[in-house]
Amino acid sequence: MKNAIEIKDVRKVYRVGDEKVVALNHVSLEIKQGEVCCFLGTSGSGKSTLLNLMAGLEKPTKGTIKINGHFIQKMTEKQLAKFRQKYVGFIFQSYNLLPALTAVENVSLPLTFRGIGKSKREEISKKMLEAVGLKKYITHKPTQMSGGQQQRVGIARAFVSYPPIVFADEPTGNLDSKTTHEVMGLMLEMAKEHNETLIIVTHDKSIAQYADKIVYILDGDIQKIEEKNKEENYEKEGN
Fold first, then answer.
1. Cα–Cα distance, 126 to 117 (Å, whole number)
2. pLDDT tens profile 111-140
3. How far is CA 187 from the centre of its chain?
4. How far apart are CA 220 and CA 233, in angstroms?
5. What is the spatial distance between Cα 46 and Cα 43, in angstroms, rounded to a whole number?
6. Where are the strands (E) in the chain, listed by range?
7. 12 strand-pairing partners
8. pTM
9. CATH for 3-235, among 3.40.50.720, 3.40.50.300, 3.20.80.10, 3.40.50.880?
């Protein structure tokens, strides 16, 4: 199985006044295509910074990030925008739906950026909403839906263009336990169906158990990596 993501010796340092704050410290990691990988850590551990670097939202201070054969730290903003349109889907904790748009209009946004005609993208988006159990909510706007329903719209939007990689940043942070279980099952089902790589960032250990690979992050370092049905393949010395 080929690697979807290769992170080598990545370091991220922020300047705060005269001080340097190390957010990530020489992180190296490989994630295979079709793998469900969870970055697990407390607030401030560096997990969200790592996701932002992988998504090209920030650039590393040092090191390389290779996604689907592309070294994203070398790309311009214009190249990154095109790269994300083609290869990446996003699921957010706060849903990030446009309030003035209906469910089907929100879901069809990635297809709009790809230049797909209105009738075709509506057809595709309606099928995707039906797949996430929202057939009756196609014309509803975000304010007319519950948090769980809004997150299902967010999932449909992330997967609608079948991107090779989907990033989910605390995707169940605003949901109750029952809805969390439903949403996680839905994300895994959709990712596995099309062999998409799913990267989940969370502080919740119960969410991590859904993953094929759990990457424990603390103070900008990878402390341990666990793989389902395998022995631990890495543990930082002293832990």
1. 14
2. 988 889 999 999 999 999 999 999 999 999
3. 11
4. 19
5. 8
6. 3-16, 19-32, 36-40, 62-67, 70-71, 88-92, 165-169, 197-202, 213-218, 221-227, 234-235
7. 24
8. 0.90
9. 3.40.50.300
